[in-house]
Amino acid sequence: MKSNRIFIAWLRWPLYLRIAIIICFLLLFFGQLIVLLEPKQYHTIFDGIWWALITVSTVGYGDFVPQTMPGQVAGMALIFIGASFVTAYFATLAAAVFSKQHHYVEGKVAFKGKGHLIIVGWNEKTNKLLQSFQTIDPAMPIVLIDDSLKEGPLLENVHFIKGHGTEDVTLRKANITGADALMITADQHENEVTADMQSVLTLLAAKGLNPSLYCLIEILTDRYVKNAERAGANQVIHTSDAVNHLMVEHFLIKEQLTAFKKKRHMTLHKHVTIIPVPASLAGETFLTALHHFLEHHVIIVGVQKKEGPMMNPPFGYELHPEDELISL
Hints:
By secondary structure, this protein is an alpha/beta fold. It contains ten helices and ten strands. It has helices spanning about 1-10, 15-35, 45-55, 70-105, 125-135, 170-175, 190-210, 225-230, 240-260, 285-295; strands spanning about 115-120, 140-145, 160, 180-185, 215-220, 235-240, 275, 300-305, 310, 325.
């Protein structure tokens, strides 16, 4: 029974490790054997092991060559037995490396680092987030958790874990206890209510494993905002409110500027007016226009383009002849 347990334990070792042990045993055995058979040719055990290694690897330097028939028979036996094990060892080692790399791409390898950011869910928002973080800090370690991807995105410093964010085993693979922050995005493959339920469950699972973890969560519906706050979210991003606010705000700006354009010489409360781009400023940057009009005590706050207003444009924005300036 004891020998059976030892044999079972031996079979549980990695195959390449077992083959390496067998090769080492063969080198030691034949290294000692050749010293016994040809003591004049092989003076030390190291000489014998060196000959066995060069022989079994089929390199054949020729610095040690058996001179007697027993020594030559031992060399033949070593070649027949050992060469197959060496070939099997390198083949197994290459297969293990390939399998490890394949498991990494498939998201089956656990993350061992600390101080990293975990993002749950893959969608276009996540893609933009990863690009933004790589611009801000290319060295920032990021772990992406997702169950829909077959292979992780090939992005530098992004470690992919395949699985569901609500499962403890998945979060532990992402080393949730050593993470610095967690971002949970809404599942794009589910309806809004189901997506919010999964997001809150993911938050509860993460907080259960790491109560001090800083968590940001995206919520789509009103009813789950409070639930996310109760679950311990440090910041709740209510997507519908943010989008509605931006759309209404830009629509109102568009309506106001449309009225200004119809009555170019009239102002609203005598504060806002539309000014055509002077010919001298066409092709210049928005910053140049700011300086130009400040000298005339006029403040430029935006650009009215054909497709709509652009408030507070970048200083490097190039003015076009058809543009108009929104001024105070």
